[in-house]
Amino acid sequence: MPTTAAAFPVEALAPIEPRPQQDAFSISDLCAEFAVTPRALRFYEDEGLIGPERRGTQRIYSHADRARLAWILRGKRVGFSLAEIKEMIDLYDVGEGRRVQKQVTLERCRDRIHLLENQKRDIDAHITELQQFVQLLESSDAH
Fold first, then answer.
1. 55 by DSSP, 3-state: which?
2. N or C: which end of the chain has fewer CB within 10 A?
3. pTM (2 decimals)?
4. Measuring CA to CA, which residue among 17, 4, 28, 31 is closest to residue 67?
């Protein structure tokens, strides 16, 4: 779903389209919106990342669960482990106006950027070496 960053408060950090007209969400609502399977949602629940209300066998997800799911999926996309994601999400509940959550998240993101930049340099060096090896092999065929 295309959105603009300006439509969301900076504090959201995992922006999603507001749905004020909806009080709660079903498992099929969230599966359709976030392109995840019911099994994935149940797994995140088992891991303590989201906590839907139960009405019999039906799971009822809150706006907070929906926001947490957005955090989970964004964190996974950028390579954080579920333990790291849980820690960052749980810091939201600490209070302090999200100050601690923001600081820890910034630190984790900077660390991740550093790791990915190092991996990119390594990959680029491997590609260069392989290209040189291919050129060497191809030039030795010409002789």
1. strand
2. C
3. 0.73
4. 17
- Contact assessment for residue 73 and residue 33, using Cβ atoms and an 8 Å cutoff: no
Identify whether the C-beta of residue 101 lies closer than 8 Å to the C-beta of residue 14: no
Backbone angles phi, psi at 26, to 5 degrees: -90, 170
Model pLDDT for residues 89-136, shown as the tens digit of each residue:
888 766 666 788 888 889 999 999 999 999 999 999 999 999 999 999
Phi, psi of 61 (to 5 degrees): -95, 140
**For residue 45, what pLDDT band results from cuts at 50, 70 and 90?**
very high
What's CA 115's distance to the chain center, in Å? 17
If you count them, how many residues does the chain have? Answer: 143
Helices within the chain (DSSP H only): 27-34, 38-46, 63-77, 82-91, 99-142
Q: Which residue has the tokens 């092999």?
A: 137
